[in-house]
Amino acid sequence: MNKDPEASRTLEELEGDSWPDAPAESTSLVKTVHRLRRRPVDGLTAYELGRLIGQDVGLRWTLPRALAILRDTAPAQNDGGFYDDDLLSAVLTREAATWLAHPGLAREMREILHLLSDLSPYIERDRKKFLEASEGIE
Asked: Which residues of 68-101 are buried (b: 16+ CB within 10 A; e: fewer)?
């Protein structure tokens, strides 16, 4: 399988937009997002992707990476192993416009959801909202 050459680049490189350092009085989340934009996308962890996606940062590149992680970890979740609910929640709670702009990703997310069972109540709520928001997206 060919690796996506864009994945080894940072969000700043991919977007062509270098952000300055976050102001000193910024929250830790803001400082983290600024720092993570300078890291290669393929080096971001599930936790880090969740932070970026939750802030709608770099979705064109962060969502595909997140979906790959979610798909890879789905079998372990069903076996009672590790599954990153924070990342799943961040992905599921994106606005409907995100999924309209990326219909292939919406289809892939629906496929991943079919692989999952025994979701926590709050993730189940997010799952239902996502399915409603992405209904009819081809």
From this structure: bbbeebbeebeeeeebbeebbbbbbebeeebbee
Q: Do residues 29 and 51 touch, judged by C-beta distance below 8 A?
A: yes
CA dihedral 37, 38, 43, 44 (to 10 degrees): -30
d(CA 33, CA 54): 10
Residue spans per domain, the chain? 5-134
Percent of the chain with pLDDT over 70: 93
Question: pTM higher than 0.90, yes or no?
Answer: no
The answer to whether the CB of 103 falls within 8 A of the CB of 137 is yes
Averaged pLDDT for residues 37-48: 95
Q: What is the mean pLDDT of residues 87-102?
A: 94
Contact 137, 99 (CB under 8 A): yes
Query: What is the C-alpha end-to-end distance of the chain, expressed in Å?
Result: 25
